[in-house]
Amino acid sequence: MTSQQAIALAIIALFMFIPLVMGAVAGKKSIPTTDDYFVQGRGMGSVAVFFTVAATWWSAFAFMGSNSWFFLEGPLYWTAIAWNILFGVMYMIIGKKVWYFGKVNNLITPKDFFLFHYGSEALGNIVAVIMLVFTLPYLQIQLTGGAYLIEVASGGLIPYWVAGLIFYLVIIIYVWSGGLRAVAWTDIFYGALLFFGMIFAGLYIVNIDKVGGISELFSYIAQHSPEKVIVGDNWMSWLSMFLITPIGSFMGPQLWTRMYAVKSHKLFNLMPFLLGVAAIAYIGSMLVGNSANILCPDIEQTDKILPTVLYEYAPYVLACFIIACGAAAAMSTANSQIHAMSAVYTVDIHKRYINKNMSEKQLVWVGRWAILIFSAVAYVMNLTVPGALVTIGLVALAGTAQVIVPTVGALFWRKSTTAGAIAGLLVGIGSLCLFTFGIITPPWVFSMSGGGNLLSLLLNIIVFVIVSLVTKPRPDSVMDKVQAQFDDFYDGKNFE
């Protein structure tokens, strides 16, 4: 082992040890109930909420995949600024209502929300399955990115499969111990590292002698690769990313828990501004991705641009530290996804269909074992299912994005029906699968990159509206209760 490898291992060990300590402390404050383990007793404060939402929303998809897209597609990825703001607006408008219904009715999972608003076990089960099936590949992204970064940071001393195992075990230990409280606390640490790592990496790389600064960088690209300084004519890809990415992430089970867990309604109004400001960090990704046109123009595995240029042109210790920040980005999303999938399985499946008479303490233990199992499945996928980070991510997000339709219907359209919600979801998910696996080619402009994801969501909306207009309304017993709580919401009752 060289001295550089020893330093790298020490940095990795530090980044793994800190969340373990946080998880242990969080575990001592935990109460053995599903409400505390899965939604932190609905008492999450403002600092923790911002960092856990931002760190969960940003991931290996953002930290590594964004560099690749800036390199390959030029300014197309700048849609990230727009989708950050859209995500914040949805968190404010939709999230506050979800939070309110969760608080008043003690909701824990997305299925609970749909059971309350539609009174349909079948619709709730479809939503639960969507949450599990489409969150797994997005979890795979985090394990892939995190494992690779640990492997690279160790100078190859830790092989990829061992790096993935370490990544997976650390998450299991602290989430097992402290539940959502441990996840939120570690996300404060991860979030700070994520934003620092993205910005600092870009500023450092663009100012090395071979690049020569921002002005020289873009003069070079304009002369040698002018197609990478314009958006081009693939507006469908831009539109798809702008809509699918924030909607799919917002509808992921990990964000539902963060809507339910918020202590005060006041924070929801700040999220568009806070997340819009946080998008400044993408400047770092833009600088790294564009600098790669000079530093490594022939790179084949573009997801590896960041570690490639860092280890070639930055001091070794600095490179290791920034790469560890990237691993933190992956871990901050993976911990949330594993925890949220555990909640979906425990509350929606195990409690309802396997053992209805379990105590709260026993259910928490079921949740812990579910964390272990889902992590193991994602780890196997990580070793066996190939794919570029952004490509896998967009398909996974397109699946969870389908849930936005019945959610908006429940909150903003009284005529929405259970039959409409079910039909829309089945058509949307079915068409998405057909387009993704190439069984059917999307027609017209939707055949452009990302068009299939957008078309499947559009078909969901159309079917949802048409079927809702011609089918039986939701039961009066459901609608009376929902309307009464809407009245209380607009009157500001039960906010504190």
Question: What's the structural blueprint in terms of helices and strands?
Answer:
Blueprint: H1 3-29, H2 34-39, H3 46-57, H4 60-63, H5 65-73, H6 79-105, H7 110-118, H8 121-153, H9 160-206, H10 214-224, H11 235-250, H12 253-260, H13 271-278, H14 282-295, H15 305-313, H16 316-354, H17 360-384, H18 389-401, H19 404-412, H20 418-436, H21 451-470, H22 476-490
Question: Explain this structure to me?
Answer:
The protein has 496 residues and is mainly alpha-helical. It has 22 helices and no strands. Helix 8 packs across helix 17 and helix 8 (121-153) runs parallel beside helix 20 (418-436).
Summary, kept brief:
The protein has 496 residues and is mainly α. Helices cover 77% and strands 0% of the residues.
List keywords for this structure.
496 residues; mainly alpha
Strand percentage: under 5%
The termini sit apart by 57 Å
Number of helices: 22
Largest sheet: none
Helix content: over 70%
Question: Which residues form runs of ≥5 with pLDDT under 50?
Answer: none
Rough outline: globular
Oligomer: single chain
Order of helices and strands: HHHHHHHHHHHHHHHHHHHHHH
Number of strands: 0
Instruction: Report mean pLDDT, rounded to a whole number.
Output: 87
Radius of gyration: 22 Å
**Helix-strand category:** mainly alpha
